[in-house]
Design a protein that fits this description.
Largest sheet: 4 strands, antiparallel
Order of helices and strands: HEEEEEEEH
Number of domains: 1
Structural class: alpha+beta
Number of strands: 7
Strand order of the largest sheet: 1-2-3-4
Radius of gyration: 20 Å
Number of helices: 2
Keywords: Membrane, Transmembrane, Transmembrane helix
Shape: flat
Distance between the termini: 68 Å
């Protein structure tokens, strides 16, 4: 009888824990894929990746020597990559657009979009941004707010 309980316990444990293991493995695989593409992009532009951080389909990176910030995002199976030269910027700032929704008759603020804006030293140059979150593309936030705050300070330190 105890052998049956042990088998049931092991099967139950595996049934509960296996989805988390599978999700973790998929996440790590996606992160490796993003990093590989980002390093290829950096190498093609004579840069390197010294620091990086990923959340979901998004990764931010930094070349500390050349003072370059990177963003790569996987959208519909395609990689969208961009970079900014931090020594050509005056500052950067997180822009978090919110909208109000009614939840159980109480107004709640919901993040609609999250962007990291880069403002150039030359006013005639174009302001660039990294899109970190868009409610229409990704329904749920997955650490993008924290990522934006951490990387805003990293980029500002090199501007």
């Amino acid at each position: 009888m105890e052998t049956g309980n042990i088998i049931i316990g092991i099967v139950s444990f595996l049934a509960v824990i296996s989805p988390f293991i599978i999700m973790y493995q998929k996440s790590k695989k996606k992160e490796k894929e993003l990093l590989k593409k980002l390093k290829e992009y950096a190498a093609n532009h004579d840069f390197q990746i010294d620091q990086w951080e990923a959340t979901g389909n998004l990764m931010l990176g930094l070349d500390e020597v050349n003072k370059v910030g990177f963003c790569i995002e996987l959208i519909d199976g395609k990689f969208e990559i961009d970079h900014v030269l931090l020594n050509e910027l005056s500052f950067c700032k997180v822009d978090r657009e919110k909208r109000t929704v009614s939840y159980h008759n109480h107004p709640e603020k919901v993040t609609q979009s999250l962007k990291l804006y880069f403002y150039p030293k030359q006013k005639s140059d174009e302001t660039k941004y990294f899109r970190l979150y868009d409610e229409e593309a990704t329904k749920q936030l997955n650490g993008e707010i924290e990522l934006s705050e951490v990387w805003e300070s990293k980029f500002r330190a090199l501007i």
